Amino acid sequence: MAYVLRRLALLLPTLLGITFLSFALLHLAPGDPAEVALAGEGRTAVDAEALARFRAAYLLDQPLWRQVLHYLGPFDLSADGHEWFGGSGAHSFGGLLVGDLKNEIHRPHVRVVDELGRRLSVTVPLAAAALLLAYLVALPLGIVSALRKGSAFDRVATGFVLVLYCVPVFWAGLCLQLVFGATGLDWLPVVGMAGEGATLGERLARAVLPVVCLAYGSLAYLSRQMRAGLLEQLSADYVRAARARGLPERIVVGRHALRNALLPIATLFAGVFPALIGGSVIVETVFDLPGVGRYAYEGLQQRDYFVVLATTTLGGAMTCLGILVSDLLGAALDPRIRHG
């Protein structure tokens, strides 16, 4: 427990560092959010006075260090912010440290934290289902390939996962839409989410193709890692010693080799799950899903700093938590690992 608390305490400075770097990179990128926002209102020419008012409202005319501190908090540094920093005191506190992710620049009435929560309700179930599918298929496939090394099954499985790993996600999504949508077999809906009154069956039907697209790349990678890890353990001295003692093969593989072979698979969780959460922009765009990945892409297109910073910080937090879960899984699988 002390180890978990210590790692969680280190999460805060890590996220602050990620936020600072993201802030700096966003300001180095070309494009002015004020011009993008005002031009989006249908104006043919952006008025200089309107630009100045917009920049002042979002502190875009302030030095970078002040913008960073305003976003991080806990003090609001805007004109309505804390009196210590020249504000009116109407809204003294705000920022990331108090859970305030600001409002969208292009939709000032929309709070980023509310929109992010709504988008997470779409992305997290799909990512969790894709991760579960990937592990459920990849582990048995890798195990059987290792146990039947050099056989016809192993060669076919190797070629199959190699093809899966090489197929681009956008191309796979479009092919699945053509095959299973209205233009093909017409088995599954291919665009959008189910409405509020939809049944469970309708919701699951709309989730099938996005989950498959999210899962197949991870499935291919995990199955190869499982095969390589098990083959390495099967050639180890302790496995040969167990066989020499006359232990049945299922005991040798199941209780000895397999448990050690699962260690690298557990550590891969640190990268697979955060990537599914934050890297689903292509899948969500192809299938028209209002998830976190698409939200980040839209925010980047519109130069909405607060949206990009929120999604980037979320990705960093998920990566840190994934690493923590991987460490704990490794300790559970290998009793020699202890966290002091």
Structure in words:
With 340 residues, the chain is an all-alpha fold. The protein has two domains: 2-98, no CATH class; 112-333, MetI-like (MetI-like fold, Orthogonal Bundle). Helix content is 69%, strand content 0%. The chain is built from 14 helices and no strands. The chain is globular, with a radius of gyration of 25 Å. The mean pLDDT is 81.
Descriptors:
single chain, MetI-like fold, mainly alpha, 340 residues
Which second-level CATH architecture of the largest domain applies? Orthogonal Bundle
Secondary structure tally: strands: 0
Overall number of domains? 2
> Which fold does the CATH topology of the largest domain refer to?
MetI-like fold
Report Rg.
Answer: 25 Å
Shape: globular
Give the name of the CATH superfamily of the largest domain.
MetI-like
Strand content: under 5%
Query: Residue ranges: pLDDT <50 for 5 or more in a row?
Result: none
CATH class placement of the largest domain: Mainly Alpha
Mean pLDDT: 81
Secondary-structure element pattern, one letter each: HHHHHHHHHHHHHH
User: Mind describing the biggest β-sheet?
Assistant: none
Q: Quickly give the structural class.
A: mainly alpha
Distance between the termini: 10 Å
Task: Characterize the quaternary organization of these chains.
Answer: single chain
